[in-house]
Structures are given as structure tokens and as C-alpha cells.
Amino acid sequence: MDSQRNILLIALALVSFLLFQQWQVAKNPAPQPVEQAQSSSTAPAPSLADDLDPAPAQQASAKTITVTTDVLTLSIDAVGGDVITADLNQYSAELNSADPFVLLKNEAGHQFIAQSGLVGPQGIDLSSGNRPAYQVAADSFTLADGQDELRIPMTYQANGLEYTKTFILKRGSYAVDVEYDVVNNSGNNATFGMYAHLRQNLMDDGGSITMPTYRGGAYSSEETRYKKYSFDDMQDRNLSVNLPDGQGWAAMIQHYFATAWVPRNEPGTNLYTRVIGNLGDIGVRMPNKTIANGDSAQFKATLWIGPKLQEQMAEVAPNLDLVVDYGWLWFIAKPLHTLLSFIQGFVGNWGLAIICLTFIVRGAMYPLTKAQYTSMAKMRMLQPKLQAMRERIGDDRQRMSQEMMELYKKEKVNPLGGCLPLLLQMPIFIALYWALMESVELRHSPFFGWITDLSAQDPYYILPLLMGASMFMIQKMSPTTVTDPMQQKIMTFMPVMFTFFFLFFPSGLVLYWLVSNVVTLIQQTLIYKSLEKKGLHSK
């Protein structure tokens, strides 16, 4: 092995490759085969295609109902009872903006709405495209001070059937319960079932190489805890997954925010997607119920509209918190996020929490770091002997390899000692990357001074430049035996390349790498002083 610096170079390149690979996976998820409905004692729900026209006509709205709580402002169309806009009152649209972030919208260029209705033989959301025009007591409803729950009943009557669609919102909650109560006084049996889907314009998955994000569908079933189903997947084939026990959900997700429909106590519910022109639907279709004359029935689902708050989402539905996608290193990233949130609760600043987390993580990895630099120093001390061995043996590679291994054994040196610690640290580095990138808490969160948003790039590029300088210092402090001019140029160029790469990273991520480099410099200084006392370290 010619140089441990070559190993460091390879390790850094591998980190970059893995980050790029993760971005490619997030941006272009592999097409998944459609899961087939599983056999169950409960009959699966009919396909929505059996109930609705491929392109239902747009019915003119009678009026729009405004519903306001401490965290949400919703606009509900009285025709059909669809949620056509949703403002998140505690999240601004842009930094320092007085306007709230708009999650659901009904604009000409971008429609993103939450629809629900009753379909089937006596359904009121008919295949002709007609939707019921509900009667509502007021045009606006507001959660009053001291009030914990707000109920908005919407009523409709037809052919002896009484329908009440009720929206239930609670203080501090982004979960909205939607209930259908039906009373049958028609003189005959009535059969129908509830559907609920999210409709959005088909668009690019989104993201960039420095901020790899995903916009599209996702779902959970009893067989699959979490799976993305992109707009491309929807166009390729319709999803159809049966939920024998009624456990699952269908969602549209994007960076920091998610919207999802969760069926309630409806075994045999069907998860589905469909494409209508430039619109994609993903949702749930619950089984039909037959209501005898004089009887009543209820259908219920929960609509999550809000930020990706893991604790709250986990309480709404199993696995709903998995929309915070940490990739294949979720088992490392999730505890790191929990620790980051715990620290922030004490220090009160997400930037300081990142710094504290970095010191904790790098402190925990100190034994690996020490082993890495000790091995690199030992290998450097062996370079004169290895060079003499090369001159003596010449081109006989087999003999050279044998004698090198004997020398390593005699000197008690592990040639991989400098590489293995780096390989073990890589998963932690990548997991931290995803934990910071997926944390909605960092959105518009200030650090200090010019860093007013940890989720945005440094406007003056100060942090990336400091990060590059710290990386250059680490390179200068590290022992090296490289004599090849080309390799020297590559290693000299490495801090420049990484600095350019980090110019466009969110400042919270750059802060982590900068502090990590500072910790590395401190650890290097301590380790090298210890090695000098043992006579192992020499520049």
C-alpha cells in the first residue's frame, strides 16, 4: 500500500458517490411492480374506475367554506366537500414572509386538492360527474380561544337519504377527521362506499444535486411499510393494493410537507392510483356498505395536511412518520434526529444543536479516528523499508506481496487500519446528511448573524469557504508519502472541489461539515502529540 492518503482520497470520493447515488434513488425511484390484492374474508373494495368516469365533468361551485384553526386555514368547496386550499398558519411561504405556506391549492397551473365522496349504486358522487351541493350553516368557521375541537357539518338530502359530511379539526393538530353519516329513509336498501384521494398535477419529482428531494405519491400497506409511487409509476400502471385489515394510507409528499388519507376501521380497503390527463390521483376506496331502510351507517377517514412532524404522524397512523425518508440508513438517521431534537430543547437554537450533535458524534467516534491516524503513522514509518523491498525484489509482485505481509505481521501493522475506520464512519456521515436534510424543524430556522435560514444556502458563502479552509488544514496536517505529481495535484484540488460542491448546500449541512472538520483538527493535534511521544509520528 503506497499511501494512506490514497485511502483518504478514495474514502472522500466514495462519500461523494454515495451521496450522489442516494440523490439518484430519491429523484428516480425504480418502478415497482403493482401489488395484487390479497385474499381475505373481507371482500375487497370495488375499483374506483367502476364508480367514476375517467374524466368527470367539473361542476360549478356554489360557495367555498373557510375553516381556521391555530395551525390550519382550509377552503372547502360546498360542492362535493373537497378541500381545495390549505394554508399552514405556523409556516411562512418564504423567509420573513407574512404569507403562510400553501400546501393544497386549486390554481390553473398547479392543482393539488383532497377529494372525498360516496360512490356505488346509491352514491351521490355520480359517474356523470355530478357532485352533491351541501348545505352549510355558515360561510366561515374559526376555532375560538379555549376551544379544542371544531366541527363543520355539511348536509345533503336526496331520494329519502340524509347525508351529513362532517370535518373535525382539533387545536394544534394537522390531522382532520372526515365523517359521513347516512340515514336511510328511502323505503329500500341503499349501497355505497367512501373514497378519498389526493389529486395533483403530474410534474417532475423535484430536487437538485445539493438538495435531493422527492415530490410524488407514497403509500403504506400491511405488506409494505412504506413505498414511493412516483408520477412516472402512476403513468406506467395503476396501483391496486388491498388492505385486508384496513391498515395503511395513501399520500402525496414533498420536501418538508405531506398530505395523506388514512382509512378508519374499514377492512378490505383498496389503495389505488389513476391518471386523468395531466392529473394524478392516489387514494383509498373503502368497501361498500348496504344500509337497510330505517338504518344508518358511518364512513370515516383522516386527512393529514401539514409538515412532516414524526411524533404527531406516528400517532395518526402506523408508519405515516416514514414519509420522513432517511433512505437505507434510517436506523441510524432516526436516532440522530431524535438526539438533535433533544439537544435543541435545551439550547433553543438548531444551529447550536447541530454543533453539539457534531461534537457528540465525533467524540463517540474518537477511538476509530485515533486508530485511523495511528495506523497511517505506522504505515508511513514503514515506507523506507517498503521502498527498499521494491528495489530489491523488482517486478515479482507475488514475492513482493508475501514479503509485505510478513513485514506487516512483524511490525504489528494492519494495512487496512487507516481505511476501515473511514468506512465505518461513512454510514454515520451519510445518515446525518439525511437527518439534517429531512428535518422540517430546520426550515427558516436562524443560527446567528447572516445565517437566517439553516435550510438555505449561505448567502455569502462564508461557511463553505471556512469548510474548504478547514479541509485544506486537515490535508496539510495528515501524514503523506505521495511523491507522484499527479496524485499530489489531485489531493491539493480536493478541498477546492468540495468547497465548490458545498457552496450550494443548505447552511445547516455545511455547518455540520465545518464543525466536524474543526473537531477533526483538534483530534489530529491531540493524536499526533501522543504519537510523537511514542516516536511514531514524523512529517
Look at the structure and give the mean pLDDT: 83
Q: Biggest sheet, open or closed, and with what strands and sense?
A: 11 strands, mixed
Structural class: alpha+beta
Helix share of residues?
25-40%
**Rg over CA atoms:** 30 Å
Strand content: 25-35%
In terms of per-residue confidence, which ranges show pLDDT below 50 for 5 or more consecutive residues? 1-11, 17-44
Give the number of DSSP strands: 20
SS field, number of helical segments:
12
Shape: elongated
Distance between the termini: 18 Å
Oligomeric status? single chain
Describe the protein's architecture and organization.
By secondary structure, the chain is of the alpha+beta class. Helices cover 35% and strands 26% of the residues. The strands form 2 sheets. Strands 1, 2, 3, 4, 5, 7, 11, 14, 17, 18 and 19 form an 11-stranded mixed sheet that branches. A hairpin with a 2-residue loop joins strand 15 (249-254) and strand 16 (257-263). The chain starts with a helix and ends in a 6-residue tail after the last helix.
